[in-house]
Predict the 3D structure of the following.
Amino acid sequence: MINSMTGFGRAECVTPSGRYVCELQSVNHRYLEVRSRLPKRLSGLEFQVLRAVQARFSRGRCDVTVIEEVPEERPRKLRLNRPLARAYLDAFNTLREELMIPGEVTLDLLFSQRDLFELEGEEPGTVEVDWPEVHTALEGAMNAVAEMRREEGRSLEAALLSHLDLVEDTLASIIARVPEVVRGYKIRLEGRLQRLLEGTPVDPGRLEQEVALLADRSDIAEETARLTSHLRQFRELIQQKGPHGRRMEFLLQEMQREANTIGAKANDARTSHDVVALKSVLEQLREQVQNVE
């Protein structure tokens, strides 16, 4: 069974002290990357959020947003950080004088520095007491994301199996055509030799030697055996508990390599056409696997 890396979840936790809303959006990524946006007062919980998501998912870029809503009966005052404002003013004036920039430092410039103002109760600090509530909301969001990733994984599984059927059918066609390719080469070679020798009988031993050389140069038994093995492993991964995305990517790289070798050895137009079709389906598989966890 496989999971997708795409999902979205939203959950909330309501307590007497406030309401916490958590949203989590997950998209495909080569590894696991967690980015969080927390209220300033809860910024100390960033590590706990990271560890919680890492414990739940293996791959994907996860964007976590936590919103804190306090009851209206808890009014908070806007506070100006006066020492910081004076420091900004001194720094701006010093820079203006050193660079000889015309103009004055205005209130608009100072007010654009967002860290000059803060709401009482939003200063970062020890917020372990808030973690159980935030964790409850985060768990709800992760549950929703996990369910969506499972649903998407079922659709991915159906698409992957369909593409694997196409690969196996095309490979079977290539393998079945090998004897016909050798026979066709023998007939063409014998015809050319007869024209060159102007009716003189062709040495059967020499003809068979040339055909054997071609058969050896165009032998694809090893490549088709390895490709068949990779396909079997790929199907087994789909049925096993994941994550398998990175291993599937590796198997597809190996399958593409075998397909390239088969194409290089092909001495037949129809086989070359089948190899192009084979590589096309493998590329479609690769695109699908990029979203497998």
User: Anything to note?
Assistant: The chain has three domains: 7-74+126-150, 78-119, 151-289. The chain has eight helices and six strands. The domain at 7-74+126-150 is CATH 3.30.230.10 (Ribosomal Protein S5; domain 2). Residues 1 and 240 are 5 Å apart (CA to CA).
